[in-house]
Design brief:
Blueprint (H helix, E strand, L loop, with lengths): L2 H32 L5 H33 L6 H6 L1 H37 L4 H28 L6
Helix pairs in contact: 1-2, 1-5, 2-4, 4-5
Length: about 160
């Protein structure tokens, strides 16, 4: 087993932990503490921008290390591998879920999150706040499924 493969797996796990940990930290720790804070909107805005910056770097890191992990494990990048082997099909599912995470993250970060903060400043209307909350939850669920599939793949790629 190559040291480069182990380094790649290590960083893949660190990136995954950062992504999931951040998605849990914000609603479980930050948001409850800010509920009655007078500068709530400004803090949410600054925190959201900071996490968005590091979150997108993390997603790029996950993509890069995921591809490297396949390469270092000697997996072929062929249609036959991705469509006909159990391991390849799980990798394909993981790739599709990752694309889902990218789409939900983009919508959450650049549409719902921005509009939710604007809503908080201007009115009591909470439509985008609800959409931002649910898109974050969907993203967390997708990330947890990805982590589970990563465990399955690391154990040989047989699900049932």
């Amino acid at each position: 087993m190559s040291i480069w493969y182990l380094i790649s797996v290590f960083f893949h796990i660190v990136f995954g932990a950062f992504w999931i940990g951040g998605m849990l930290f914000l609603p479980l720790v930050i948001l409850p503490e800010l509920k009655q804070h007078p500068d709530r909107i400004a803090i949410l805005y600054k925190t959201g921008l900071k996490f968005r910056f590091y979150g997108w770097i993390t997603l790029l890191g996950l993509l890069f290390t995921g591809l490297l992990n396949l390469y270092w494990r000697g997996m072929p990048f062929t249609w036959v591998f991705f469509s006909q082997s159990d391991y390849g099909r799980l990798v394909s599912w993981k790739a599709l879920i990752f694309l889902g995470i990218l789409l939900v993250s983009e919508t959450h970060d650049f549409l719902f999150g921005r509009k939710a903060l604007a809503e908080l400043q201007s009115s009591d209307n909470a439509n985008f706040k609800l959409l931002a909350r649910w898109s974050g939850r969907v993203n967390l669920l997708l990330a947890l499924v990805m982590a589970f599939l990563g465990v399955v793949l690391s154990r040989g790629g047989v699900l049932f």
